[in-house]
Specification:
Elements lengths: L2 E10 L13 E9 L4 E6 L3 H9 L10 H5 L7 H11 L8 H21 L14 E2 L1 E5 L6 H17 L4 E5 L16 H14 L4 E5 L7 H12 L3 E5 L7 H10 L4 E3 L5 H10 L5 E2 L9 H13 L3 E2 L7 H12 L7 E2 L9 H5 L1 E2 L4 E2 L2 E3 L9 E2 L1 H19 L4
Parallel strand pairs: 5-6, 5-12, 6-7, 7-8, 8-9, 9-10, 10-11
Antiparallel strand pairs: 1-2, 2-3, 4-15, 13-16, 14-15
Helix pairs in contact: 1-4, 3-4, 5-6, 7-8, 9-10
Length: about 400
């Protein structure tokens, strides 16, 4: 079997909000085509136009090759070998960042092909099931513009999540820093106030996680918030500090009464190893596409297991990323939760309409994936509609005055 083509689809939610900080509004979907008719699907969490350029750009020497250029003509049934070739062959422009993120979409598609070729879900290619069922958590981020509206809305969302069967929720409580919600500007104490309100709403049995999205510029600020959150039985505090400051993470991890989680922005297993060994985080959060695909994500899970750390992956995209995270969760005993958002708790049309991921959600649990490969069926009408929206934005931005 050989790869004969790579198709890149740049997609955009026609209702996207340019003032929002949400990568679920656009995506790149790749289709890796084989000469035997099997087609693998992948995506990654990266600016979709940048990702397409990283994949399609040609190269002119052996250490700066294009990803698609290297993949065409190769055997898709050995993803680990393909990953090494793509990583090394693009090292002078890649190694970290956008090129590795783009590589991730291709690697995911190759594993999809492998599962289809064997007639089994991807997770069965890697080992035995570590769970009878999978436990998702619901990410809650109301799109409102004042603290009062946010507090009221997130209580409603939490109530709806629990009514839908979720036993775990994550509150995106970001009132300062680069991700600040729609202009909301509130003191750090407001985070604990919101968590307390949700805890009263859902009771003591529901797991609550808190994501502040790089809000704090000092360890002391992060520690003060962690101490307030400890009163409300918070499972982890996510991304309190800028991801490059491993010394600060180490200080916070040693002193915090709440486990510290981070890792969604990192590239490669090497950065995740440093996050655990130097940054000391208790919960590692790889985004499978961003780390370079399932090949390095499997190694990251192994590294975490060796260090007695939990893995709770980031999956803020479409059903493609959800399916990928579910495959990983199926064989990872130290992955207690992964990110999942059902349609009725989701703002993104891409998440709702692009793909049938074949995952069955009931009573707060997901059944283990059972379709071959990633089990994905693209809605071609939705694909065309989202591609048209992306092309319209490309034309508009190209013609915009400088």
């Amino acid at each position: 079997m050989r790869v004969v083509d790579v198709r890149c689809h740049v997609l955009l939610d026609p209702g996207f909000d340019p003032s929002a900080t949400s990568s679920a509004q656009d995506t790149i979907v790749v289709e890796v085509i084989t000469d035997e008719g099997l087609v693998g699907i992948g995506e990654t969490d990266l600016n979709a136009w940048v990702a397409r350029a990283c994949i399609q750009a040609p190269g002119t020497h052996t250490m700066d090759l294009g990803l698609q250029q290297m993949l065409i003509g190769s055997d898709p049934l050995d993803p680990e070998a393909r990953w090494r070739e793509l990583y090394r062959g693009s090292a002078m422009s890649g190694r970290r960042g956008a090129v590795v993120h783009a590589l991730g979409a291709l690697d995911i598609a190759l594993w999809d092909i492998c599962g289809q070729a064997r007639g089994v879900p991807c997770w069965k290619l890697w080992g035995d099931a570590a769970h009878d069922v999978l436990t998702p958590y619901a990410s809650l981020q109301p799109e409102v513009s004042s603290l009062d509206e946010y507090r009221e809305s997130i209580q409603v969302w939490a109530r709806r999540a629990v009514a839908a069967g979720f036993t775990a929720v994550k509150l995106e409580a970001t009132f300062s820093g680069p991700y600040r919600h729609r202009g909301i500007d509130a003191p750090d104490e407001a985070i604990a106030d919101v968590v307390a309100a949700v805890r009263r709403e859902v009771g003591p049995e529901v797991v609550i996680m808190v994501d502040v999205q790089y809000a704090f510029d000092t360890v002391d600020r992060a520690l003060e918030t962690a101490q307030r959150l400890a009163e409300h039985d918070v499972f982890f505090l996510e991304a309190p500090l800028w991801p490059d400051d491993l010394d600060a993470y180490a200080q916070l991890s040693r002193r915090s009464p709440v486990p510290i989680a981070s890792g969604e922005w990192l590239s490669s297993e090497y950065e995740h190893r440093d996050l655990m060994d130097l940054g000391g985080v208790a919960v590692d959060q790889p985004d499978v596409g961003r780390v370079g695909g399932l090949t390095p994500a499997l190694r990251i899970c192994a590294l975490a297991g060796e260090r007695n750390r939990l893995v709770v992956p980031h999956a803020w995209k479409t059903g493609i990323s959800v399916s990928v995270a579910a495959q990983l969760a199926a064989i990872t005993p130290h992955m207690p939760f992964f990110e999942f958002l059902p349609d009725d708790l989701c703002e993104s049309a891409l998440r709702k309409e692009l793909v049938d991921d074949g995952i069955s959600f009931r009573d707060g649990r997901l059944e283990l994936p059972d379709r071959p490969g990633l089990g994905l069926v693209l809605d071609r009408d939705a694909l065309a509609r989202f591609a048209e929206a992306a092309e319209a934005v490309s034309r508009d931005r190209a013609g915009a005055p400088r």
